[in-house]
Amino acid sequence: MSHSHSSAGRHRWRLAVAFVLVAAFFVVELVAGLASGSLALISDAGHMAADVTTLGAALIATRLASRKDSTGRRTFGSYRAEVFASGLAVLVMIGVGIYIAIEAISRIGAATELAAGPMLLVGALGLVVNLISLFLLRAGAAESLNLKGAYLEVIADTLGSVGVIVAGALVAWTGHAWWDTVIALAIAGFVVVRAILLGREVIAVLGEHAPDGVEPAAILASMLELDGVTGVHDLHVWRLTSGMDVATAHLVTAPGTAPALVLDAATSVLREEYSIAHATIQLEGAGSGPCRGADW
């Protein structure tokens, strides 16, 4: 686990530079969008806002994850900061999608004047900013999930910048402002779909669902295969934040089984087969009467 956090920490400067670039460009794009009347620019700025949130969350999460808990009450640390920030990004992205849809409907039949020059200029500038950010984040993306999320976000945003350039070119070439609206709706649709996918992940984490790719039934079967284990119950497996899965279970052991060996075997199976580094295993003898564990 320390590997992922140290790698995120080591690449922190990359995140910081990308964050400053994207945040500054978000402001430029929003102002240019409102000034030129381009919905495509405003739509892409909304995606940039989600980028700013994601990059900011990754920065905060790498700092919080390594921070010592001074209250003594945060027994899970502050790892969930990243999940809450992702939730905020989802709300921003859906909000932008709704705004663009309403704005596009209100433009139907209205003659809209657009400044195609600023659209092209800002779109090109956005592409440069995104390519620099991609170059910065690529190195850390393979090592840290946090950075990987930010990297994927910027890749998606690069498409948005290309969309803005295409919209600007079409408006300049044809003189029809509705090209801008069409491309804005396409970008907004893309943003909303991504928001829903990200939202599902956030809800799964906050709802304490079993992590993707981890089958509780498979863990149960693996535990039952261990030498000396005759029963498994009260198995819970959930995700604390990306890259950190946690499990608890009660194992019933046969008489004469060495507890230390069973514990070692159980924790190594969880770590090696299911990448669960943090597990709490409770052992019970077969004849120790009914379990006084949790009933949920």
TrEMBL record:
Domain of life (superkingdom): Bacteria
Membrane topology: Multi-pass membrane protein
CC terms in the record's Gene Ontology section: plasma membrane
Subcellular locations according to the entry: Membrane
Segments forming domain Cation efflux protein transmembrane: 16-206
Pfam families listed in its UniProt record: Cation_efflux (PF01545), ZT_dimer (PF16916)
Keyword check for Secreted: no
Primary localisation category: membrane
Keyword set includes Transmembrane: yes
Keywords noted in UniProt: Ion transport, Membrane, Transmembrane, Transmembrane helix, Transport
Domain Cation efflux protein cytoplasmic: start-end pairs: 211-284
Transmembrane segments: 12-35, 41-62, 83-102, 114-137, 149-171, 177-197
NCBIfam families named among the record's database cross-references: CDF (TIGR01297)
Family indicated by similarity: Belongs to the cation diffusion facilitator (CDF) transporter (TC 2.A.4) family. SLC30A subfamily.
Protein name per the record: Cobalt-zinc-cadmium efflux system protein
Originating species: Propionicimonas paludicola
